[in-house]
Design goal:
It is a single chain. With 344 residues, this protein is α+β, with helices and mostly antiparallel strands. Helices cover 21% and strands 30% of the residues. It contains seven helices and 17 strands. The strands form two sheets. The chain has a nine-stranded antiparallel β-sheet, with helices on one face. The longest helix has 23 residues. It is elongated and about 110 Å long.
């Protein structure tokens, strides 16, 4: 075989190999591909404030968020308010995300990037239902420089991409909720009552005591007696449901009273293996009179308005408590006493 023919066959073989590579991994010129360093979602930074609806789905689990006025609400939780910072971080991440590295175009290999069955299917729309962004979100990791790296795939791309800046996201509706139920300075509490058990704190004192100790009983240390106040002053939810009248009987009722006139009632129920709480508030002038002899820097200017606001926000809702909070609020008398050694 002549050298010339050998060279020709070599070139043809190389062209065939390159052609095969192009077929397997090449770009489709009819689709917008983008490049390294470009924004992940073209033009979104100019329209991110138009976002009015977010849908996130993973299999049979889905979350739909709607914007009304300046707030976002979780549809799957009867329109309960979403956490504003969580939604803001999510949208900001979309707007500022950049393409870092192109990845596979072979959808059979998407599973390795978390873009198969594990992927989150995410859509963001404006108030006119126009699509602002639609993509699959796969494996996400935080990088050492504090910027996240996430695998995604957009329908208009020819391949998957590794991108920066996307915030942590979930299809679980409870993950998006505004978790804060109460935010009350612990210094305001005068007493917390569990049925016939009362824990009190003198005005201006930081220590609590267990009332009506019986002969031979020794109360727990002060830091342990403070647990109920710490839990109630910053009560957070794990989940929420719309239910004004649970059909089961309560397992516990706890009342917290402040020196400036606020009475909070927490009624606890056991539902589906978890503890849920109803929260009610009212303002009482007689309670406020008890605190007039001391300085209450954390007291609200209008205690009656505070109580009304808490009642309005909490009315008709059941709040799922964390296991720790539930354990603290379901304590019985012996749980506030020191454990005594067993006598031989």
């Amino acid at each position: 075989m002549s050298q010339r023919l050998t060279n020709i066959l070599g070139y043809l073989t190389l062209i065939a190999i390159l052609g095969a590579i192009w077929v397997m991994f090449g770009e489709d010129p009819s689709r917008d591909q983008g490049a390294r360093g470009e924004t992940t979602f073209e033009g979104l930074v100019d329209h991110i404030n138009d976002a009015a609806g977010i849908a996130i789905r993973h299999g049979d689990v889905a979350t739909h968020l709607n914007k009304v006025g300046g707030d976002w609400f979780v549809i799957e939780r009867d329109g309960y308010k979403a956490d504003r910072a969580t939604v803001h971080d999510f949208l900001r991440g979309l707007a500022l995300s950049e393409r870092r590295e192109p990845k596979t175009s072979n959808e059979d290999r998407f599973d390795k990037l978390g873009l198969g069955e594990e992927a989150l299917d995410i859509k963001v729309q404006d108030s006119q239902d126009s699509m602002l962004a639609a993509f699959l979100m796969g494996t996400r990791k935080d990088s050492p420089n504090g910027r996240s790296l996430t695998y995604i795939f957009q329908p208009e791309d020819t391949r998957s991409w590794l991108v920066t800046g996307l915030a942590e996201t979930s299809a679980d509706p409870a993950w998006w909720l505004d978790a804060a139920v109460l935010d009350i300075a612990e210094s305001r509490f005068s007493s917390i009552v569990y049925g016939d058990i009362a824990i009190t704190r003198p005005l201006g004192d930081s220590k609590y005591k267990l009332e009506k100790l019986r002969e031979g009983e020794v109360a727990q240390a002060d830091w342990q007696l403070r647990d109920p106040a710490r839990v109630l002053s910053n009560l957070n939810l794990d989940d929420v449901r719309k239910m004004a009248n649970p059909i089961s009987d309560p397992v516990a009722v706890v009342e917290a009273v402040t020196y400036d006139g606020l009475r909070l009632t927490f009624t606890l129920f056991e539902l589906e293996g978890a503890t849920w709480a109803q929260v009610a508030a009212r303002y009482e002038d007689t309670l406020a009179d008890a605190g007039k002899g001391g300085v209450m820097p954390d007291a609200p200017m209008d205690g009656e308005a505070e109580a009304a606001a808490i009642s309005e926000r909490c009315r008709g809702w059941l709040y799922k408590l964390s296991d720790y909070d539930a354990k603290v609020l379901k304590r019985v008398r012996v749980d506030f006493l020191e454990q005594k050694p067993i006598e031989e």
